């Protein structure tokens, strides 16, 4: 096997060749999910940005399409979003053939090199063929730079409550909120976040949307706000905020302010490899889901990971929900249900008492790079519960629940390839345990080069990539000091 195919995931999106970072411009239309992405087709390191493009019927199996947007004399095409302009508010299409409007940042690298700081501005493009080809608007940019070095990543949402388009933009140390009636003329409505959450580096790639609180009719607004560096385990990560929006201003919910005072920030994913993620637009009300995908890498080492002809994958797409637990709002995320369609066989075990290190599945039963493992543990004490993916070469990933010291963790130190970057496996990644439980369900999605762990119905998520020359072959659970019960384990083999 070539190095390229050795590390290419089985079911996570990767570009055929060249560099990829952030997901961009995601929208759903006429049965197709569109995914654009920051792309440099000519090398496997970051460079002059294009928007690559892929389409899928289910967000799992992707077809890479032609490059959607090329850099031009106004600059590189940085991150942004796309919406279906159903009522043709922009006038670029018709009611019969609604235009798709993409909004992106022009990054003028030539100007940046002169030492000027106003080199990022916002621009639009439209498509009249359902996102396949694009025309850049002739009067770009539509939002000029207000003399801010970091001014980028516009994310548009149709605000059905106030009947307006809104757009959020990462602007230095805050999120700027704009509104528009036609997607061309934008008015600055407010700014959010200057002294809230984690700072110390530019905010990037925001997303802002209304979402129903699970099990109620209450509506809240959620702001996703990526930051690099500043993540809980180093490098890039995405924090979130929950509050209310009056059509102009986003105000944090009181309990969320308390949560920030207590934890500093709340993170969508505590692993090292889920960055710049945003949600799909135009998902029909009849579906009603908030569908999310993130870039499964980290700027600490993204340019150095040991793949050859391509670089970076996306996370498994996830459904985001907002829950209220005892007055505190939390985003939970789980893999989209479309993944279930690919389950070819389920091996089910029940009621194992774990009193020694227990091999749950071995090589003969599964291909550990196309797998979902769901298990529930009962009778947990203040102890450490360690789960291990390993192979005969003694490569291992450990993840688990340190209930004694109150954190979930992920440890990829013992995987063959780590030396390409000092940051890659320097430390064990941790996520705080903030509630008490003695029973927990864990869902683990395993591909050739990634592991995504969803604890407790997605209340805590940890996503990390790894590079192993031989596939992981077995899954075991290590003995803790106290016995506990593996209530059930479902090994879902996936077939693509
Ligand atoms: C985030 C980011 C964005 C920018 C893009 C450039 O990863 O830095 O802020 O638009 O990548 O590729």
Q: Which features characterize this protein?
A:
496 residues, mainly beta, Tachylectin-2, Chain A, 6-stranded antiparallel β-sheet, 34 strands, binds beta-D-fructofuranose, Glyco_hydro_32_N, Glycoside hydrolase family 32 protein
Task: Label the structural class.
Answer: mainly beta
Which architecture name of the largest domain does CATH use?
5 Propeller
Rg from Cα:
22 Å
Please give the domain count: 2
The first-level CATH class name of the largest domain: Mainly Beta
Number of strands: 34
Largest sheet, described in full?
A: 6 strands, antiparallel
CATH homolog superfamily of the largest domain: Glycosyl hydrolase domain, family 43
Protein name: Glycoside hydrolase family 32 protein
Family: Belongs to the glycosyl hydrolase 32 family.
Pfam families: Glyco_hydro_32C, Glyco_hydro_32N
Domain Glycosyl hydrolase family 32 N-terminal: 12-327
Give an account of the 3D structure:
The longest helix is centred in the middle third of the chain and has 10 residues, at 254-263. This protein has 496 residues and is mainly β. The protein starts with a helix and ends with a strand. It is globular. The chain has helices spanning 3-7, 109-113, 254-263; strands at residues 18-29, 32-40, 50-56, 63-69, 76-84, 100-107, 120-127, 135-136, 151-159, 164-171, 174-180, 187-192, 203-212, 219-227, 237-245, 250-252, 266-267, 275-279, 290-295, 310-311, 318-325, 328-335, 343-354, 358-361, 370-378, 384-390, 396-402, 407-414, 429-432, 440-447, 450-455, 460-465, 474-477, 484-494. Strand 7 and strand 8 form a beta hairpin. The structure holds beta-D-fructofuranose (FRU). Beta-D-fructofuranose is lined by residues 21-22, 38, 49, 78-79, 105, 152-153, 204-205, 276. Beta-D-fructofuranose binds next to strand 1, strand 5, strand 9 and strand 13.
């Amino acid at each position: 096997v070539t190095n390229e195919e050795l590390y290419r995931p089985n079911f996570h999106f990767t570009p055929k060749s060249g560099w990829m970072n952030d997901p961009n411009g995601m929208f759903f239309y006429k049965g197709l999910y569109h995914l654009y992405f920051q792309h440099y087709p000519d090398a496997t390191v970051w460079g002059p940005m294009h928007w690559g493009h892929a389409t899928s019927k289910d967000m799992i199996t992707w077809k890479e399409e032609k490059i959607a947007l090329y850099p031009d004399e106004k600059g590189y095409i940085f991150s942004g979003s796309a919406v279906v302009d159903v009522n043709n508010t922009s006038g670029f299409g018709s009611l019969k053939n609604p235009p798709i409007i993409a909004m992106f940042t022009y990054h003028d690298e030539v100007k940046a090199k002169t030492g000027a700081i106003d080199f990022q501005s916002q621009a639009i493009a439209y498509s009249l063929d359902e996102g396949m080809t694009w025309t850049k608007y002739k009067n770009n940019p539509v939002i000029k730079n207000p003399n801010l070095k970091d001014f980028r990543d516009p994310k548009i949402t149709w605000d059905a409550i106030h009947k307006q388009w809104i757009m959020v933009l990462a602007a230095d140390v805050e999120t700027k909120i704009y509104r528009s009636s036609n997607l061309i003329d934008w008015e600055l409505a407010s700014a959010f976040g200057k002294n809230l959450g984690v700072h110390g580096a530019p905010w990037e790639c925001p997303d802002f949307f209304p979402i129903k609180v699970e099990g109620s009719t209450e509506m809240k607004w959620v702001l996703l706000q990526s930051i690099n560096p500043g993540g809980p385990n180093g490098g890039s990560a995405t924090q979130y905020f929950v509050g209310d929006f009056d059509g102009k201003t986003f105000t944090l919910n009181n309990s969320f302010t308390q949560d920030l005072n207590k934890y500093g920030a709340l993170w969508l994913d505590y692993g090292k490899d889920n960055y710049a993620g945003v949600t799909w637009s135009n998902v029909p009300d009849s579906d009603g889901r908030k569908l999310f995908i993130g870039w499964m890498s980290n700027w600490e080492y993204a340019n150095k990971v040991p793949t050859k002809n391509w670089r970076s994958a996306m996370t498994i797409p996830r459904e985001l929900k907002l829950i209220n637990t005892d007055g505190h709002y939390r985003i939970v995320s789980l893999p989209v249900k479309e993944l279930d369609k690919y389950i070819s066989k389920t091996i089910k075990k029940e009621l194992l008492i774990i009193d020694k290190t227990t091999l749950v599945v071995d090589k003969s039963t599964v291909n550990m790079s196309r797998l979902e493992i769901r298990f529930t543990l009962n009778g947990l004490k203040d102890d450490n519960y360690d789960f291990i993916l390993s192979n005969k070469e003694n490569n291992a990933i450990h993840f688990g629940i340190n209930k004694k010291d109150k954190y979930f963790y992920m440890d990829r130190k013992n995987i063959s390839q780590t030396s390409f970057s000092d940051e890659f496996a320097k430390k064990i990644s941790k996520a705080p345990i903030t509630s008490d439980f003695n029973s927990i369900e864990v869902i683990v999605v395993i591909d050739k080069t990634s592991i995504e762990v969803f604890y407790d119905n997605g209340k805590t998520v940890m996503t990390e990539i790894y590079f192993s020359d031989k596939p992981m072959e077995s899954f075991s659970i290590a003995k803790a000091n106290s016995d506990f019960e593996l209530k059930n384990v479902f090994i879902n083999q996936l077939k693509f």
